[in-house]
């Protein structure tokens, strides 16, 4: 394994790369001018056809990096599956497919197909029969398709494993082996991982040829994220400490990370019972509930999200006010990954971590990483328990009509604001899916918004609506 020698280079302009003119022009129209560190270090090797291992956190620009390599290599006139991206969750697969479509919008007739669990199998077979250039999906569902012979990978020349560490954590190793065994040996392979455990090293050795290792520093938290640590004695005290921190500094959006699915649900239930606006996100939820949870937290219809690390991979929020580690993460890199979700885009982030004597070895690892001794802070006074529970400003309305019924965001906005409706600034995010749409409105305008949508028409017809409650 060789290491990229581009590590100290400053970000370079995309125009310095040998990309198809259409791709370069589209990048400029998207406002992508200078490459991020991971793009500058990995793209030249990827474009030269080399196998690359990229280690970098969410938000580092890795999707655009492998996306450009994939699109540069693609031959549109060959209507065969040429590239495939494997992701740990449906949410991440949807995010990746969305980014690829954005990068590819100047290149005509590229077909990108998403294959994930939690959606019907039959329609996916129909879509595969119509053909595609690029497949994005989760290992479980893609393995099903390759075993049944509905997905043929004989023409694949580029394979991407995105967030490979999470796929292994979720138990997908056998599925990955099964899929990779059905791909051509002479393909190019790109592997991205936030952490780099021994298991990843072993897999990279077995599926890659002389890969180049690109490692991007994840130490941004040292300068932009204020970290505070609080010592607790037991689980009851841990929950009390969490309440004190949430009430002492009420915020619009907070994510609480737990280490297990069971703990995630228990913490969310306890906070809900105590009057907080809270949602839980973990792998035991039905796919529809997970999708709605992510959507409602992103549109500010809930102020607190309690999540496991794996489930939160689909979380695409520009800036979180605070991240709270209910337990310290199992390793330092996961801790850095968690807290990196606050303080993005140059803003100052805040991260709180609760720990007990049993977790002191994890604190020792963090002290080595942060290069200073961690001194526990004093918890806020119990008087804050009398403070009002922070509530979400928005509410979400579900509309039983979407893209397939020709409903567009403009139709929803018009129905809400026209003829003595609510004001434009009372409407938040609008998400239009295939057969459903979701719109966030301020809580104060919810009653009027519901009445307007119930009585009004979009595309000449009425749609059923309902308020999604926490």
TrEMBL record:
Domain DEAD-box RNA helicase Q: residue ranges: 12-40
Keywords noted in UniProt: ATP-binding, Helicase, Hydrolase, Nucleotide-binding
Positions occupied by motif Q motif: 12-40
UniProt cross-references to InterPro entries, sorted A to Z: DbpA/CsdA_RNA-bd_dom, DEAD/DEAH_box_helicase_dom, DEAD/DEAH_RhlB, DEAD_box_RNA_helicase, Helicase_ATP-bd, Helicase_C-like, Nucleotide-bd_a/b_plait_sf, P-loop_NTPase
GO molecular function: helicase activity
Residue span, Helicase ATP-binding domain: 43-214
Organism domain of life: Bacteria
SMART domains noted in UniProt: DEXDc (SM00487), HELICc (SM00490)
Domain Helicase C-terminal: 224-386
Similarity section: Belongs to the DEAD box helicase family.
Name the UniProt record assigns to this protein: ATP-dependent RNA helicase DbpA
Organism in which the protein naturally occurs: Colwellia asteriadis
Lineage: Bacteria, Pseudomonadati, Pseudomonadota, Gammaproteobacteria, Alteromonadales
Gene: dbpA
């Amino acid at each position: 394994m060789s290491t990229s020698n581009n590590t100290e280079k400053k970000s370079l302009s995309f125009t310095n790369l040998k990309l198809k003119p259409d791709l370069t022009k589209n990048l400029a129209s998207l406002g992508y001018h200078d490459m991020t560190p991971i793009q500058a270090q990995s793209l030249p090797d990827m474009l030269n056809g080399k196998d690359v291992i990229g280690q970098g956190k969410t938000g580092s620009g890795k999707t655009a990096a492998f996306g450009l390599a994939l699109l540069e290599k693609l031959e549109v006139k060959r209507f065969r599956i040429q590239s495939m991206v494997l992701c740990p969750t449906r949410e991440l697969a949807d995010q990746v497919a969305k980014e690829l479509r954005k990068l590819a919008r100047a290149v005509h007739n590229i077909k990108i197909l998403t294959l994930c669990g939690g959606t019907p199998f039959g329609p996916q077979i129909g879509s595969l029969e119509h053909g595609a250039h690029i497949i994005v999906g989760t290992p479980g569902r893609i393995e099903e398709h390759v075993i049944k012979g509905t997905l043929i990978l004989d023409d694949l020349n580029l394979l991407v494993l995105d967030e490979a560490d999470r796929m292994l954590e979720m138990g997908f190793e056998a599925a990955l082996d099964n899929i990779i065994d059905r791909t051509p040996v002479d393909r190019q392979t790109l592997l991205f991982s936030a952490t780099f455990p021994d298991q990843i090293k072993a897999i990279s050795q077995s599926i890659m040829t002389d890969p180049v290792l690109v490692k991007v520093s994840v130490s941004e938290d040292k300068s932009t994220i204020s970290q505070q640590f609080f010592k607790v004695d037991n689980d009851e005290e841990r929950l009390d400490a969490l309440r004190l921190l949430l009430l002492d500094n009420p915020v619009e959006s907070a994510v609480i990370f737990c280490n297990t699915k069971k703990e995630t649900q228990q913490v969310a239930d306890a906070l809900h019972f105590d009057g907080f606006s809270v949602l839980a996100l973990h792998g035991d939820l039905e796919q529809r509930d997970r999708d709605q949870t992510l959507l409602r937290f992103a549109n500010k219809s809930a102020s607190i999200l309690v999540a496991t690390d794996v489930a939160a991979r689909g979380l695409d929020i520009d800036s979180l006010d605070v991240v709270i580690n209910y337990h310290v993460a199992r390793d330092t890199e996961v801790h850095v990954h968690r807290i990196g979700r606050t303080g993005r885009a140059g803003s100052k982030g805040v991260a709180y971590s609760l720990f007990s004597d049993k977790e002191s070895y994890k604190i020792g690892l963090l002290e080595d990483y942060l290069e200073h001794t961690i001194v526990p802070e004093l918890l806020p006074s119990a008087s804050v328990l009398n403070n009002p529970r922070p509530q979400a400003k928005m509410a979400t309305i579900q509309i039983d009509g979407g893209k397939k019924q020709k409903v567009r965001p403009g139709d929803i906005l018009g129905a809400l604001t026209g003829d003595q409706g609510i004001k434009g600034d009372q409407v938040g995010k609008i998400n239009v899916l295939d057969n459903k749409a979701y719109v966030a409105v301020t809580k104060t305008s919810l009653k009027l918004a519901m009445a307007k949508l119930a009585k009004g028409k979009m595309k000449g017809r009425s749609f059923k609506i309902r308020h999604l409650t926490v």
